Amino acid sequence: VAAAMAPSPMAAVLRAAVAAAWVSAAAAKSIMDFPMDVRQRNVVRVSRLPCDECATLENFYKENSLVFLLFYERALVGKHHYKQSIISGFHAACEDLQWSRVACGAVDMVEDKAYAEQYIDPKTAPAHILVRDGTPIQMQKRHIDKLMDKPGDKETILWHLRDLLTSDPSPGALSITTEVSGADPFNRFLRSYRLVVVGSADRDDQDARSTFRAAAQRLVLSGDVPMALEPPGAGKKSKAAAAKDKKKRVAFVLALGGKALSGSNLTKGKVAAFVDGKKLDERPLVLKDSKETVVVEALRALAGPGLVAADEAAKRAEAAAAEGRVKPKPT
Question: Where are the alpha helices (DSSP H) in 120-253?
Fold first, then answer.
């Protein structure tokens, strides 16, 4: 009887496989560790429970510096207009933030109420918080007033995130890659940034566009290509400081269509690095059907030497300005 009740080798193997699957899912902590469709939605389920698209709160904080977190109850979805508008607005804002610096997570209080109780009164759900390096960022009254005045409004949600995170008020301030469709927008990037890493894709090839942006996100969030946000208040600088860093350090740009290519001196099917508006290097890369890993390596190969050249150019410009040989030109 004892032998009959003993677990079979096959049962042990199955239990080990289930445990391994849970460990694998739990180990998917950074937004970059998740499948492409999850990264496009930019919302990870934050839970203690095992699932393919889950991460524990602790792991999610550990691997994502900037987290926008929603607390909600699944049972109330679709049953209350005000509450549903907040949930829908959160998801719409997070989708706009795909491939950005901000990773979104959602906590279903039906199963993970303890997570919510660390931050909010569960009776006030749905509610969202912004977290930097594991610490919630305190909202100001003006943020609360605007959010309550337009509950669930996507643009208001995005505004309050930008306002809390950076002094840059532009809509793309939290983005890593900017898509341009004409020669003039691209040339503005060349004038405004020391280093511009650029690729090209057809406007209707959404997969190619996503792959480029995913690769750029991976390089920035992994630290291979540092791209710091200007913190709130950084816009108030002395004239000397403003002149010193008139140009930003690095940008990733994706040119869409022939007009953008004609203005970029870039051939379709290539990626290139520009330093102070001049092409430093280019490499063949057809984005269509390319793997993200291939694109990452191509962009890394351009960005590494490009950053060195950009920093040298910045030092030369600073030294020349200090010696009075030239004055920094406004951009």
Answer: 141-149, 154-165, 183-192, 206-221, 239-244
- Helices first, then strands: H and E counts in the chain: 13, 11
Q: Is the pLDDT of residue 3 over 80?
A: no
Angle at 320 between CA 317 and CA 322, to 5 degrees: 110
- Cα 230–263–242 angle (5° rounding)? 25
**Which burial class, exposed, middle or buried, applies to 106 when counting CB atoms under 10 A from its CB (0-12, 13-18, 19+)?**
buried
* Element containing residue 282 per DSSP (H, E): strand 278-284
Looking at residue 180, its pLDDT comes to: 92
pLDDT at 113 over 60: yes
- Other CB atoms within a 10 A radius of the CB of residue 241 amount to 11
pLDDT score, position 27: 59
H/E stretch holding 105 reads strand 102-108
Backbone angles phi, psi at 236, to 5 degrees: -90, 95
Q: What is the C-alpha to C-alpha distance for residues 201 and 290, in angstroms, rounded to an integer?
A: 12
What is the pTM for the complete model shown? 0.84
**Could you count the other beta carbons within 10 Å of the beta carbon of residue 34?**
22
Please give the structure tokens belonging to residue 64: 């994502």
Opening angle at CA 69, ends 66 and 71, nearest 5: 170
- The DSSP 8-state label assigned to residue 181 in this structure reads -
Indicate the residue type of 170.
S
- What's the rounded mean pLDDT across residues 53-78? 89
